[in-house]
Amino acid sequence: MGSLPFRLLSVTVVLGAAQLISGYSFNNCIEDPYSKGSFNCINRKEKKISAVINDLPPSAINLTISKNHLWHIPSKCFAHLPNLRHLRIDDNKLSIIEQSAFQNLHQLQCLNLSINNISELKPSLFADLHNLNFLLLTDNKLKKLPEGIFSTVLKLNTLIMRQNLLTNFSGIAKSVSHLTKLRKLDLCSNNLTSLSHSNVSLPKSLTTLYICRNNLFTLGCEHSFLRFIQLLDLSYNSRLPTTAFQGVDLRHINYLRLRSTSVKVVELLNISNVNAEYVDFSGTGLKNDTLLMELCKLLKKKVKWLKNMGLSSNWIENLANNTLNYCPKITGTLDLSHNQLKYTNCLNFLHGQTHIQNFSAEHNHLTSLPSCKTQNMVYLKNLEELSYRYNRILSVNSYAFYHTPNIKTLQLNINTIAFLHRKALKGLKRLKTLRLDNNLLTDLFNNTFEDNLNLQILNLRNNRISVIFNGTFLSLRNLTILDLGGNKITHFQPSGLDGLKSLSKFYLDGNNLRQIDTSLYRVFQDTLTVLDLQSNQIRFFTEDIISPFMNLSKLSDLKLDGQQPYGITLLPRNFFRGLYSLKFLYLTNNKISHLAPDTFDDLTGLQFLTLDKCCAGVTQLEPGVFKNLRNLNRLIVEDIGIQNFSKEVFGNLTQLSALQLNRNGMQTIEVDALESLPELHYLDIRNIPLSCTCKNSLLQNWTLNNPNVQVVYFYNLQCPHDAKHKFYNFDTQVCYIDLGEYLFFSTAVVIFLFTVTPLLYVKLYWKMKYGYYVFRSWFSEQWRRLRDEEENCKYDAFVSYNSSDEQWVMDQLLPNLEGNGSSFKLCLHHRDFELGRDIVDNIVSAVYGSRKTICVVSRNFLSSEWCSLEIQLASYRLFDEHRDVLLLVFLEPISERQLSSYHRMRMVMLKKTYLQWPGSDCTDPTQAQDLFWNQLRRAMRTGSRLVTEENEREGPEETEHFETSDENHYLLP
């Protein structure tokens, strides 16, 4: 840590050790950086809501908890958030909400519980929600409402319970009858069969009632039950008959929707007091002229003027020229959408309805719009809006709108128009909005828009236009928005954009432009504010170019995202020269190889910059690259692979409030760089491999103790090399050690070891080797497992011998201890060692898994390192654990001189009685050998716990052992 002093103050050490969690970050939520107090907790893995919101502050005002796996809301879950105004818990898996779940939410105004699995509401669930005015319960499994469920939410204004399983309207009416401020009740898509009620009435404030898509077969309500309702939607109740309305007061209805019911509207108007002007006749089966004329005649008897007439979804195929003459005068909108019309015949069927202002024939089967400059044509001079969207129109012929000269909005989008006659739009001098998007247009001509002098919005998105010819927009001096996105434009002819003197927003995204021609923008250099060039094929091969934006002095929004197929790879040094007014710049999804220090120098007014996935190979941002962006408010530098974050790069961003650095390669973040951003409130460093080392100890301390900067999901950041540990609490105590003192002692130790180790190696080679094996066994936790009580031992004795003495062991020792009536179980290395296991581990297991160790000593035994290890381990148990476990059997006489170098064995012989195998030179070898085996069996049967001096002071134990002597003692037969 080059910038850390060798010794920090003791206060700093205490802070580093305590790791007090006071940082401004949340485990499962993110506070909106531009809306203080608004939190989003979306797509989290937690199944308990407490884990999601427990760390939120009491100042939270808006809270969204969506798309999680939550199924249960416990009592008092939000008690620590008393200031909540809006709460969304939608699109989860909620099935249980406890009675007091929303306790203490006295300020809550809006509650959204839609798209869950709620089947039951507790009676007092909303008891504390005294200020609730909007409640959304859409798409749940509610079958009924408990009595008094809304008794305390007296300010409730809107109640939406769509897509549930409600069946009892009377219970619903009773629940809301006291809500004097309720204005809207939505019960669509339930299982209601009638509006029957028992001695209850709807609140007078209720004006909007939606009961669409139920199973109503009758209204079943009293005469005055709906007297205050103004908007009543009964559509898609296919069993609802006309007679259901008989005797029901509908005088205040100003919109009645009966789409896809069994109601016969002519009969309805005869038997009810509904105002005919406010009935929507869409989807009421008026599919032929006879029925329509009958309706019109009846309407004309009731009213002379009709504001709107909805006739959509009636399967109307054709209208005679005089059909609508029988209707009252329509002054507003005539809607013939969603029918089967194949021809419009220049709207001659509107003869006598020349006062119409809006006409819609969307979603029909129209295939062409004919020329309308003919005799006997009906002029609709009052028509201002005309829509033919969602048809199958292939061609628009000349003078197609000659009969509607005053329309201001023309919508021809979402058709298959491949041919637009040069004079198709002739005469539309008052047209302001023209939508031709999502068609198959390939060419625009210089006289296509010559009459559209007042056009302000022209949308040609998603066609097949490849070239903009000279003079195409010459007459469009008032055009402010031009959308040519999603076409195949490769270039503009020299005067292709001439005439666009007022253009403010220009969309060219998704085309095939390869370069930005500076001459294209000369005509609107003082007006253009938005330029969208994303998803084109723009590339540069040299840095020495003149800025194409030099004269766009008012441009505020520039998009250059995702150039195809490779993206911008070379960004010229002067590319953004002259864009002093630019506020928003998008460079995402490119492959820029280098960002020069002066790249953004002219962008002094920039407020938003996104470089997400913009670069390839830019591992280091050069110092000063953002030096002039002092007004930048939000910077997105995600997933570009940078490995540095320093004050030299980011230090001048004094107005920056939100910084997104996630998915980069930096291992450290300099705290002094963060401290140079005084307005920073939002920092996203997710998916960055920040090392959990002393290099980041200051960063950890800064984030934990900075209450002003929200570090997104900081407490979830993992150490890159150990996912089990978190960045916020990795140990930093070692970072505060006096480095000089530490280096002195470590150096001294190293010198000492290099000096002493060779001496120890020469003098204590064997002990060191033995110690290594013992430590190795201890480290693998072998000894702990094997230090059990002797009754748990697997063998009675482990036999340690040299391979040259194997014949004696097999011919003499094994038959006499395991055979001949003896019941001992011996462990022999060639027979009982585990295959594939380390030799040392096998030896340790054998010594500690046997009550005794029999060492068959010979001259060959003394020269074997493995045999020496075995006797060392056995003697360790003898001396250090005070267990009588070692039996020495000498196969041949060995002199004092030969034993002098085996110190450990000599210590054993001084403390332990040992046995000498009687040779063939004895007087009576058979008798001597029988005595030998009796003595050995007796020694095998003794206990293993020795009596020490400490044991004798505490009291005698019943242990059986041989007498010991200060001299070697041979047990002879």
Automatic annotation (TrEMBL):
Residues 944-973 are annotated as: Disordered. One of its GO terms (biological process) is inflammatory response. Residues 1-23 form the signal peptide. It is a single-pass type I membrane protein. One of its GO terms (molecular function) is signaling receptor activity. Residues 793-940 form the TIR domain. PROSITE patterns: LRR (PS51450), TIR (PS50104). SMART domains: LRR_SD22, LRR_TYP, TIR. Belongs to the Toll-like receptor family. PANTHER family: TOLL-LIKE RECEPTOR, TOLL-LIKE RECEPTOR 12. This is Toll-like receptor 21. It comes from Oplegnathus fasciatus. The gene is TLR21.
